[in-house]
Amino acid sequence: MASICSNPPKANGATCSDSNACTTADTCVSGACVAGASAVCNDSNPCTVDGCSTVSGCTFTPGNAGAPCGSPASCTVGSATPAVACNGLSSLCPTPIVKNCAPFACGTTTCITSCAQDGDCAQGNYCAVGGQCTPKGNPGGSCSAGNQCLSSFCADGVCCNNDCLGQCEACNVSGSVGVCTAVVGAPEPPRPACVGDGTGCDGTCNGIVTTSCTVPGQSTQCRPPSCNPTMQRPRLLSCSADARLQAGHLRCHSMLRLQHQRRLPGGQLLPRRRLQAALRSGNPVLDRRGVLERALRGRGVLQQRLHGAM
Q1: Burial profile 249-277: b = 16 or more Cβ within 10 angstroms, e = fewer
Q2: Is 13 helix (H, G, I), strand (E, B) or coil?
Q3: Averaged over 29-33, what is the pLDDT?
Q4: Residue 259: band (very low, low, confident or very high) from pLDDT cuts 50, 70, 90
Q5: Is omega for the bond preceding 94 within 30 degrees of 0, making it cis?
Q6: What is the DSSP secondary structure assignment for residue 204, as one 8-state letter?
Q7: Could you tell me what percentage of the chain is helix, strand and coil, using 3-state DSSP and rounding each to the nearest 5?
Q8: Which of 7, 38, 121, 278 is deepest in the core (most CB within 10 A)?
């Protein structure tokens, strides 16, 4: 390339070209064109092979298959974005395929694939047996613990709208499954049974009060009065404040209410032993009105005067 710098002559340092596209800043030195620094060919694309042609200069050819490109792998807000690599056919980095981790949650850079606790699961799911994240149930769905329910409450084997802990409420009442509802009758297990001793004064759920059983008042008569023929004193049975049977005594009236009728002629005398035997057996003799008049004591007999004609 001497002619470029010598015909006409050029001063040293004058710009020239050595006809090589892969050199830059060529200059004349003592009448000759001297190549400068090599061209820097770098497009900062990991998916191209950088080169240089003496004719055309820098070249960037698709290649580098498997070379990492794009952003590193990440997982956030339940979505995992994998790392990608050049495919060797295109100078463009492939678009990563974002994965929704549900029902699992995000790990550090990828989706969790097996759970050990509820926190390993996406929102609305819980960690079930076997390491599987499982959707939480709606009210009325079966459950064994509150973490299995969207409401966070599991009562009576179903997901419930609240904790439903009252003695006289339940969440599995037919027609209202999933809604805590007042019950009628006995409490739903495992709630404690109503107090009572089985004598008729037991508490019960009334379908209104949910926190506790309702017991009969002390004025409630739970059995009809009875009369002991020996003591001649009836027992009046009523309910106590703690739902137990309590007995009170009153003097026997001369006119006793009995339970069965037998037709007797007016003014008939009934021996004392027959009357007492009938009373003890619970099957005494009565007139039609069910009233035995005043007993008249005398010589070992009780005289009965019956009302009205038979």
Answers
A1: eeebeeebebeeeeeeeeeeebebeebee
A2: coil
A3: 91
A4: very low
A5: no
A6: B
A7: 5, 30, 65
A8: 121
